[in-house]
Amino acid sequence: MLHSITEWLLSNKIELLGAILGILYVVLSIRQNIFTWPTGLLTSVLYIVVFFKSALYAAMGLQVYYVFISIYGWYFWLRGKNTNNKSQAPVQNISRKLLLRIGVVTILIYGFILFILVNFSDSDVPFMDSLTTSLSITATWMLARKYIEHWIIWIFVDIVSSGLYIYKNLWPTVVLFLVYTVMALIGYVEWKKDLKSEN
So what's the pLDDT on residue 80? Predict the structure, then answer.
């Protein structure tokens, strides 16, 4: 029994480390800690490997995007101290106009990813992989800009992703995304408090 557990841990070490760092990433983002971004960058690098091996190509591509958005988010969060005399950019609500534009862009991204997966990959879950990927792109950009509504998108994405990863037998990642769901709820509540205090 112990041998089987050890063997499983060794064969899934990259996924496990990615899951642990992923939880740390969300904890740091809830606290609006600048180390959110380097932690997220490292998590993404590990999950590029995990998703490539599982043929979740859109999810893998999303991790590549996360590497770059981590650099952008890091810059934007730090830039806040130069514009409002705070250590970081403040939490904000998204305008309806911007939300509509983001919605249109998200639908276009979804259609593009779906087209690629259906026509040029061996993915057996192209619709769900495209949906979670396109919404995650949007939510991460919104996190980088500190729009509180990104937490609502994450709650939906994390629940759907949990089901997708159950189907793919990525059990450490299933646990990670269930934890993400709870943490996204906590994140929304905490950021809401911060938003009220700033107003």
Answer: 62
